[in-house]
Each structure stands twice: as C-alpha cells, then as structure tokens.
Amino acid sequence: MKQGQGGPQRIYERVALYIEEEQALGTIRADVDAQSVAVLLLGACFQYVFLKHFIGAIRSRLARNSLFLISLRLSYRVL
C-alpha cells in the first residue's frame, strides 16, 4: 500500500477534497475545515455500520438507512 500510495487514509483525503470543491462552489461554508468534516462524516458512517453489524437488525434496512441519511442531511445544513 505504501508503494501505491494506497490505504484506508485515502478515503479521508478524497472526501476532504470533495468538501473543498463544494466550498469553492459556495455550497459549504469556506471557514469549515474540510479534513475535520471528512473525519467526522466518515467516523459517523463507520460507527453506524459497526453498530448495525454488532447489534443486528432492529428495524427494516430501509427505515434504518432513511434515518441515517436524514441525520446526515441535517448535519450538512449546519455546515
């Protein structure tokens, strides 16, 4: 992975770059740290999937995913 410059950290870089591009378009505030938002967003995604597999299905997949996406949209509006 080192030789190919790959690895799990690359996803954070890609998401941060996407956030920076959205900042350039004006859809995300310019004073937001893109790397921090990427870490927070991906951390929430990881935690969601971890708990989903650890605890098991309580609600239908559609309901769980819908609630998660609604939460992300609300978080995005804060930015």
Give structural notes.
- It is a single chain.
- By secondary structure, this protein is mainly α.
- 72% of the residues lie in helices and 0% in strands.
- The chain contains 3 helices and no strands.
- Helix 1 (9-25) crosses helix 2 (34-55).
- The longest helix has 22 residues, at 34-55.
- 5% of the residues are buried.
- The model has no long low-confidence stretch (mean pLDDT 78).
Reported for the largest beta sheet, the result is:
none
Order of helices and strands: HHH
> Total strand count, please?
0
What Rg do the Cα atoms give?
Answer: 15 Å
What is the mean predicted local confidence, pLDDT? 78
Shape field: flat
- Beta content: under 5%
Q: Helix/strand-derived class?
A: mainly alpha
Ends distance: 33 Å
Helix percentage: over 70%
Query: What is the assembly state of the chains in this entry?
Result: single chain
